[in-house]
Amino acid sequence: MATATQQKGQQAAPAPLPFRVGAQPESNQDFVPPAVTLSAAAQPLSTYHPSAESFLRGVWVQVAGTTASNVVGTVVFKPDAPFAVINTISFTDVQQRFIVGPLGGYDLLVINKFGGYFSSGDPRADATYSTTTTGGTGGSFAFYLFLPLEWDLRTGMGTLVNKSTASTFSVNLTLDVNTNVYSTVPTNPPSVQVTFSQEAYLQPAAADAQGNPLSQSPQAIGSTQYWSRSVVGGAGALSLGSFQNIQLQGGLGFPVRNIILECYDVAAGTRAGGDAAFPTPLLLTYKGVQLLNQNKNLWKTKMSRAFGYNGTTADAAWGLENGVYSLPFNQDNTNTPGDAELGNSLLQTNTGTVLAISGSMVASATLYELANWIVPANGNPGSVRAGGR
Asked: Which regions of the chain are under pLDDT 70?
């Protein structure tokens, strides 16, 4: 039995180094379903199950559409295309509960662009993005979208344990009909090839080369971020004129990381029309306190400066999106939302929290809410902040 003097002289075991010290990222292209030719019916692809690679960070979705023998003078893509070729996409857990989605392809573009996951999140600005409107391959397109799980690159928070080959996550994707991609269709519909690649962390070693212990999992492991899309105010459009205190619903009861509004006018069904109809100013109240009373031009200015999208053409590379307005609650470490975020600015909500908008529609429009929230594994919102408190 050790004496009190011996116990006092013993040194405490060193604290493990942070997870990212030992966790090496891995990229793995692990599923290429057969190519599909667009038709008059939506077509689901085979379900993708990411391979077991320890800690899952997210999934890249590569989409390439190729037309052949086109003789139409100029093919015209619809405003949400080519991303609209994805009718729905979703990510579900091992019990088939939705973590991301169901969403449309354009919704996932918006999440990539304004969710705070990249220094440049605009898929249209990728070197690999393309659309072709003329010639024999008119109607062809190529793009990448990312389905995010990890929200904090510094700590690895948000990654999901993915070590079982028996209990797997699922990505389901359905391709849309030809006429929802083009307003002037090519002679022959495209053949569309989708490729899935997962981003993961490998399991860290127990210690580094000097024998220092390494953390075996990220901070607050099991904490999960969610994305959903819903119609603001329930089914139907908001009519021309004023509306008062319509409750936003997404993620209430948990820390909210992002809210993004998408507006489509009723007359043309476009975001360009929705942008013209969008209320200016729009008011946002939180627990009875006014957080926002902002006209849409100032809103666009703030988004442009925060995200670096300074192009003057909407729906184009480095430009903003017609009818899309972002409310980032992940802007707390630098001026860029999501950049090494600390979790300090998350909007804290309870189940009964009143989070409502008011404004005046210039024309009848349908307003959608893309909501992003975090469910802490232990129910403590402090666990997903820097320092874990």
From this structure: 1-9
